[in-house]
Amino acid sequence: MKTQAHLIVDGNNALHAVPEVTRILAVDREAAREALLRILRPIHDSEGVRLTVVFDGREGLGSLQKYGPDPTFSIVYSAGDQTADGAIERMLLASRNPSAITVATNDNLIRNCAMDVGAGLLRCEDLPLRADHALRLQQQVTQAVPKNKKLPPFENRIDLSGLIDIKNIFK
Description:
By secondary structure, this protein is an alpha/beta fold. The protein has helices spanning about 10-15, 20-25, 30-45, 85-95, 110-115, 125-145, 165-170, and strands at about 5-10, 50-55, 65, 75, 100-105, 120.
């Protein structure tokens, strides 16, 4: 079974490296985080990668949240006693297949850790370019389907009759 590619983004680093986001960050940190996530969305959707954006957490326990309906796009807030950098390093060291991971960061310590375990690297300022490329791919796929072509109707062909005793559910 092929391992899904995984892009881990140093969120705090990206907030300061992506000019469109940095301008928003000067006014509103939460809005800047949301802008970054919107920039990254096409990478997730078009490339089919698992995408994890890691931010420094606040006091207390860290958290993991999904972004949107797909569980393969998530946001991690590090625990209060750990930085986002530490969380990324732990993710890299715990990975069974670090060669499937690409880390987007400008932090030299994280970059060194990624190289040591065999993960790929991307600079944060290159994220918008990768997102633009992903958007172009989505547009090409969309334009390749003729508008007048009718898709067959959806049919559920999964036989559930042997899995559930429907008569007993509503008693």
